[in-house]
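Exercise 7.
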Amino acid sequence: MNWKVDFDEKYKMVVLVYNGANSAKDIFESSFSAIELTNKNRTYKMLVDSQNVIAKLNRADVFKLPYELYNKWGMNKAIRIALLKPKDIEAQQIVAFYEISTRNLGWETKVFPERKAAVKWLLKDY
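Solution. The predicted structure, written as tokens, is:
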């Protein structure tokens, strides 16, 4: 398992961290865990640290997340998702596609080059 999900008490946000290779199954499982944690803690902020991810999935898998699974798993449309830009070029393309897909389906999602800006964006208006 090359991912970890936690609740940040200070900022009242779910933090999902990826390291190394992650398959579609890994991404689905980690996303499900993160959504459960947002619902449990009644938060609308999610930080996804994908800087060190190597994504082993295709665009169809990426699109399946917001199009099919997020609704099935009860992910609130009010959740903001901040992603830290991956170093890996292929992972950057996957994250960019994810950003577009989630936005088109109603979630507020944005990719950031560094954590400080991502946290600031997540905390605005809260």
